Automatic annotation (TrEMBL):
GO terms for biological process: 2-oxoglutarate metabolic process. The active site is a redox-active disulfide bond. PROSITE patterns: PYRIDINE_REDOX_1. It comes from Companilactobacillus suantsaicola. It holds the Pfam family Pyr_redox_dim. Residues 355-464 form the Pyridine nucleotide-disulphide oxidoreductase dimerisation domain. This is Dihydrolipoyl dehydrogenase. Residues 8-335 form the FAD/NAD(P)-binding domain. Its cofactor is FAD. The gene is lpdA.
Length: 474
């Protein structure tokens, strides 16, 4: 048929998984097409995830600094925010700049970008429809592509919960990032990464935020002694944190929303300007014809893959949020490179030993490898060391001497198994520990590496000094 094209490698989705797979596959000599249904490339991360959320966090920090720098002898006149301008900066100078950059990179690498929605017909062929026109598919419309290799990178979408249908004032994270005004009262259901980061940002921007978290702790994937520092700071910003809170129902009014929740079976209602639900994400594996293939998904709808990212069909691969493991952009980047290599005949494999987790709270949280508890649960004998930022000159001079670095090493060999950082710059500092763990360095390797002074990286070396038995500044 005239409307059929053939391609070596086709990728569905241009998020961190898809676009990186496209670039790498092209570098390795493949003829690559990438299909994206959205108007812009970059997926959730660049458009409505990692990047815009960090921009709002920055704006919040700037406002707070502008409002109060009296500690440093700086008096400022009343700082006010024009949130329309804040949002325009985020959209045009941050998000658009990054997505345009990715589009340029795809072009530079001769990747064919096809705008439209992909729908699988079989293990070897798919159809592309203009976005939102899938209903015409039964008439055989659209363009057919036959592929040798297919990489699924369709990502994930927010979960909706009962009683909280998304509408004007009951919003998901995308709505939360794109608000036109700073809410006076903002209820956030779900105190995971996304909820807690945005809680901090909006509190800094002027909202009274209430976090309703169903479990006993916010950001439960980080250790308690780390989270308690963040929690204290959120409360200092005026955030109300209600744990063990079950969100029950919402009632949207003309210009507000009533949010009802229960703690120990006792109901309460908060009237808010907006209620954002950030309780997790579900993989996009149920809406593009995956059932027409032999690709297997598990009971959570995730695509099962081997260590090369291969699905149950030999020439179909999957990466990013639709595969098991943490739903993080850098996990998707990594898997993308593995899969592109595998398709090109390289001996690549995913190894998750050094995958860091970061949360952009105040202060930031970061973790890589095992925690002390993980090690105990695995029956590994470890030694640990903790060094506080209070003992670090750079942190003190930044007026940010809060938090600590903790290292976990194998007891007999000193091999580093894990590290956690809560404190200024944790998101950047964790990379040193990722390298250390990935390369199976030991505490002595870190202790004997000269770290520049005065810098926030020194507490890592100080903790290593403790591990080898010769603490310096403690
Ligand atoms: P996605 O980014 O979801 O991209 C999938 C793409 O596929 C989309 O562009 C979609 O339009 C397209 N698509 C889907 N189906 C089709 C189809 N049938 N046809 C054509 N195109 C299709 N992670 C971090 O590591 N750090 C952070 O700080 C961070 N912050 C976040 C903040 C928020 C508010 C959110 C929501 C997420 C955040 N994440 C963060 C998670 C991160 O965004 C995801 O892990 C990452 O985007 C996953 O990449 P992906 O390539 O798997 O999929």
């Amino acid at each position: 048929a005239e409307n059929v094209i053939e391609k070596d490698t086709v990728i569905i989705g241009s998020g961190p998984g898809g676009y990186v797979a496209a670039i790498r596959a092209s570098e390795l000599g493949q003829d690559v097409a990438i299909i994206e249904k959205s108007d812009t490339v970059g997926g959730v991360c660049l458009n409505v995830g990692c990047v815009p959320s960090k921009a709002l966090i920055t704006a919040g920090h700037r406002l707070q600094q502008a409002k109060d720098s009296s500690t440093y002898g700086i008096s400022t006149s009343d700082a006010v925010i024009d949130f329309t301008k804040t949002q325009a900066w985020k959209d045009e100078k941050v998000v658009a700049r990054m997505t345009n950059g990715v589009q340029m990179l795809l072009k530079k690498h001769h990747v064919e970008l096809i705008n439209g929605e992909a729908y699988l017909d079989s293990d070897t062929q798919l159809r592309i429809m203009p976005s939102g026109e899938r209903q015409f598919m039964d008439n055989g419309g659209g363009q057919t592509i036959k592929f040798k290799n297919l990489i699924l990178a369709t990502g994930s979408r927010p979960i909706e919960i009962r009683g909280f249908k998304f509408q004007d004032r009951v919003i998901d994270s995308t709505g939360g990032l794109n608000l036109k005004e700073v809410p006076k009262e903002f209820v956030i259901i779900g105190g995971g990464y996304v909820g807690t980061e945005l809680a901090g940002a909006y509190a800094d921007l002027g909202s009274h935020v209430t976090i309703l978290e169903g479990s006993p702790n916010i950001i439960p994937n980080f250790e308690k002694d780390m989270v308690s520092i963040v929690k204290k700071n959120l409360e200092k910003k005026g955030v109300t944190i209600i744990t063990n809170a079950m969100a029950k129902s919402s009632e949207q009014k003309a210009d507000s929303v009533d949010v009802t929740y229960e703690v120990d079976g006792k109901p309460s209602t908060i009237t808010a300007d907006y209620c954002m639900v950030t309780v997790g994400r579900r993989p996009n594996t149920d809406n593009f014809g995956l059932e027409m293939t032999n690709v297997k998904t598990n009971d959570r709808g995730l695509v099962e893959v081997d260590e090369q990212g291969k699905t149950s069909v030999d020439h179909i691969y999957a990466i990013g949020d639709i595969t098991p493991g943490p739903a993080l952009a850098h996990k998707a980047f990594f898997e993308a490179k593995t899969v592109a290599g595998a398709i090109s005949g390289k001996n690549t494999a995913n190894d998750y030993i050094g995958v860091p987790a970061v949360c952009f709270t105040d202060p930031e949280l970061a973790s890589v490898g095992l925690t002390e508890k993980d090690a105990k649960d695995k029956g590994i004998e470890v030694k640990t060391a903790k060094f506080p930022f209070a003992g670090n000159a750079r942190a003190v001079s930044l007026d940010a001497a809060e938090g600590f670095v903790k290292l976990i090493a194998q007891k007999d060999t000193g091999t580093l198994l894990g590290g956690q950082i809560v404190g200024p710059g944790a998101s950047d500092l964790i990379s040193e520990l990722s390298v250390a763990i990935n390369c199976q360095l030991n505490a002595e390797d870190i202790a004997l590496t000269i770290h520049p002074h005065p810098t926030l990286g020194e507490p890592i070396q100080e903790a290593a000094d403790i591990l080898i038995g010769y603490p310096t500044h403690i």
